Amino acid sequence: MEKEFGEIYNSHHQKVYRLCMGYFKGNTSLADEVSQEVFIKIWEKLRSFRGESEISTWIYRITVNTCLMHIRSANKKKEVHLEFVPDSVEENPEGEKEEQLKMLYSCIYKLNELNRISILMVLEGVPYERIAEVTGLSEDTLRVRIHRIKKSLTQCVKKING
């Protein structure tokens, strides 16, 4: 089981982390913390995975649920963990790209839960069929929704850039 878990971790940890970054608006320490929680849950529940869906779909669902539980818990405690505090960006050729990603994640965070889940999965390259399965939307509805989300995000980023 350890070998299987290691393979799962190696192939999915970056995707889980980026999905968490989307939920926590670029807060790297919170994304790290919740990503660790996700993999603890995966370890604990790996034997109960029934194989009714792709393992990546199962992992996305655990990630989404863990992020939402953390947000709800923080809201109940009236703690504000979701403030966007950009990390200091080193001066390098990637600095501009990092800033654009932070702006994008800032805009993604403003979306409602379903749209946020959908677009984050699209950005990870998850097939529409799998996204539809996770979100409960039909593929046709999902395609229209993604098109509208992309337009909305483009406008949001343009607004931030002035």
TrEMBL record:
SUPFAM superfamilies in the record: Sigma2 domain of RNA polymerase sigma factors (SSF88946), Sigma3 and sigma4 domains of RNA polymerase sigma factors (SSF88659)
Keywords linked to the UniProt accession: DNA-binding, Sigma factor, Transcription, Transcription regulation
Signal peptide, first to last residue: none
Entry annotated with the keyword Transcription regulation: yes
Boundaries of every RNA polymerase sigma-70 region domain copy: 8-75
Top-rank lineage group of the source organism: Bacteria
MF annotations from Gene Ontology: DNA binding; sigma factor activity
GO BP, sorted A to Z: DNA-templated transcription initiation
Pfam families: Sigma70_r2, Sigma70_r4_2
Keyword presence, DNA-binding: yes
Gene3D superfamilies: 1.10.1740.10, Winged helix-like DNA-binding domain superfamily/Winged helix DNA-binding domain
Stretches assigned to the RNA polymerase sigma factor 70 region 4 type domain: 102-153
InterPro entries from the UniProt entry: RNA_pol_sigma-70-like, RNA_pol_sigma-70_dom, RNA_pol_sigma70_r2, RNA_pol_sigma70_r4_t2, RNA_pol_sigma_r2, RNA_pol_sigma_r3/r4-like, WH-like_DNA-bd_sf
PANTHER family according to UniProt: RNA POLYMERASE ECF-TYPE SIGMA FACTO (PTHR43133), RNA POLYMERASE SIGMA FACTOR HI_1459-RELATED (PTHR43133:SF8)
Similarity comment: Belongs to the sigma-70 factor family. ECF subfamily.
Protein name: Sigma-70 family RNA polymerase sigma factor
Species name: Leptobacterium flavescens
